[in-house]
Amino acid sequence: MSEIKIRAISEDGYNLGEGPHWNEEDQTLIFVDILHGNIHRYFLQTQRMQNAHIDDGGTETSVSFIIPVEGAKDTFVIGLRSSVALIKWSPTEPDNQIIKPIPLLALDSTQAQRVKFNDAKCDNKGRLYL
């Protein structure tokens, strides 16, 4: 039986790392740092860590989830407090960057005071559950 080894993938501290998603095809792990508004991608083969800050327009938006969009290369759906957006994020881009999200939907102001998106997953039919 082989020995299981556990090691940190990064020396950076994350305020609230959540929502891990393993992409079998390219052997990457993506996850968010909710309170800092950052997304992260770890490349298993090269041990490279790619980071991006989501440009929230100064509203201190948290990022609650990141999920790849099936059939749309380098495209991800992300949760931003009380809205959902798309981003383009290529592995060929710099390791540290700022990304401007493309809004998809947002709760109205009354709902946004009471509700924020925390996590999400897709089923095998491509439906997004918030």
UniProtKB/TrEMBL annotation:
Origin: domain of life: Eukaryota
Pfam families, alphabetized: SGL
InterPro entries: 6-blade_b-propeller_TolB-like (IPR011042), SGL (IPR013658), SMP-30 (IPR005511)
A Gene Ontology biological process term: L-ascorbic acid biosynthetic process
Keywords: Metal-binding, Zinc
Co-factor requirement: Zn(2+)
Positions bound to a divalent metal cation: 18
Binding residues annotated for substrate, in chain numbering: 118
Cofactor annotation comment: Binds 1 divalent metal cation per subunit.
GO terms assigned for molecular function: calcium ion binding; gluconolactonase activity
Domain SMP-30/Gluconolactonase/LRE-like region: 16-129
Entry keyword annotation includes Metal-binding: yes
Protein family per UniProt: Belongs to the SMP-30/CGR1 family.
PANTHER family referenced in this protein's UniProt entry, alphabetically: MIP34848P1-RELATED, REGUCALCIN
Protein name: SMP-30/Gluconolactonase/LRE-like region domain-containing protein
Organism, as annotated: Armadillidium nasatum
